[in-house]
Amino acid sequence: MRDVGAYMRTWARTGGRTADDYSAAAYTTCQNIHRRPATASSSQISMAADTAVTRSPERSKATRADDDVDQEEDREAKKMKTNLDTEEDADDDDEEELEVPSPIRVPYIPDRLKNRFGMAHPTISAAYRRAETKFLEKRDRTERLLPTRQYFRTAWLVPVPDSGRKAVLSAARSLLRLSSSLGGEPLAQSAGFWIEWDEGSGTGVVLTTAHLIRAKKPLPKDHWGRKDRYQYHPDALVMVHLVDDTTVDGRLLYHQQHYDLAIFKVAVDGRVQLTSFGDMVNVGQEALRLGREEDFNLRITHGKVEPDDGHHCMCFSRDKKYEEVETQRSESVRRGKGVYIPRCDDGGEPVIDFDGKVVGMISGCKSGSFVPSFILNRCMDLWRNFGCIPRPHLGLQFKTLKYLHPTHAEYIWHKLNIDDGLVVQHVSMGSHAEKVGIRVGDIIGHIGGEPVSTTIELENKLLSISMSSFAVGNDTNAKLGVSVRVFHTANCLWRKNHLTVNVSDHQEVVERAYYPITNGERFSIVSSPDQVDSDSDSELNSDE
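Request: output the structure for the sequence above.
Response:
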């Protein structure tokens, strides 16, 4: 017995515990080994002691092998089912039997089974690792299945302002996700939202971005240097992903490239919630951008509205804290510590105010740019009444004076005594605007007899002109007269000009001015690309 005691004291010194920490089962086993013939080695004694420790009462309470864990879960499940059956009998409830899973218990090793370095015996540690693996699998499985548990462990939660919570939950009910393919190959994806519903036919209308049916790559540059031209595929297969995890086909009704709009008809079972549009959106206004991830989860971004000198767009600028969140997320994924969340940033996402009303739709043209709601409302009125969304093509592009830095705006006012209007940036070659003398740097003050201060106001006015034109029976490609008050900067004079413009639902292209050099002795007048090609061919033929 003296040899066994010496062995136990030696193991305690190396493991950091005293002999008193061992259970009675460990002592009994060691004594039995000591009574055996002297041929028993110290390694056999150690193995026997290890087995005794792993079979101790402490082992059964703290960490178990795989079978023990499963048996414990079965016992807990049966216990809970028995308790529930008892409660149901007491209430005389005839409802369907409730199946309750066993509780999720976190395994641990009691402190008294650890040495002074915080380490447990290898056998106990191995059993703990097996139990921990089972625990993590069960916890992850539960959190994947239960909607109430999926997102409370997310490390990148960005709080939505309290005033916007109800707005988000209300607007999200009309938010969808769409995807397209061409020839079996994925084409694009976008968000979208319900704008119409016919209960009789069980069909609704979804508004989204035309980028959903646009080719991924632009067409090659032509010999005039024109770029950013894309082909659209109206015959693309479009799938609409609904909130109940089902998908249905979307049938294209109409698309408009200039405003980047696409309208689809969708047949669904049951009613849908329609989008509510706001009447106005202002620069500096706080807003929320909603989107759908590829797994249909809602994405919310808080930001504010900023000016955008596009013809029909404003800009949604998200808070800087989202940039920090995205940086952290990307860094975690790069290091293998985070979960990759597939993004869906191809446009069609609604921008809402804090009343839950849509004040714009993100276009696919430029990151953050969106078509404001009052432009969308005008477009939808034209489409519902005439089946298309036409607009007059002025052949001009502008910048807004009121959005200039005050230093520049003050300089222009000092030189020209003008502090409002649209500054001409480009004049389309061969357009009527060019023919009446409008040049780059001139300022447009009025369109159709009404003052214009921003490109949004201009676009709104052009759509009103289209509505009036179609109301009297005109069609697309009709010629319209539009009055324009222009400040000719080179002469410092205001003049009223009448432009004859085309009305079209195609995307407006402002051609840059150029002229060809045909030989070293003379140069020709400004001409169109077709004329240049024909002139060149004529010269070649004459030379022959």
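Residues 66-91 form the longest helix (26 residues).
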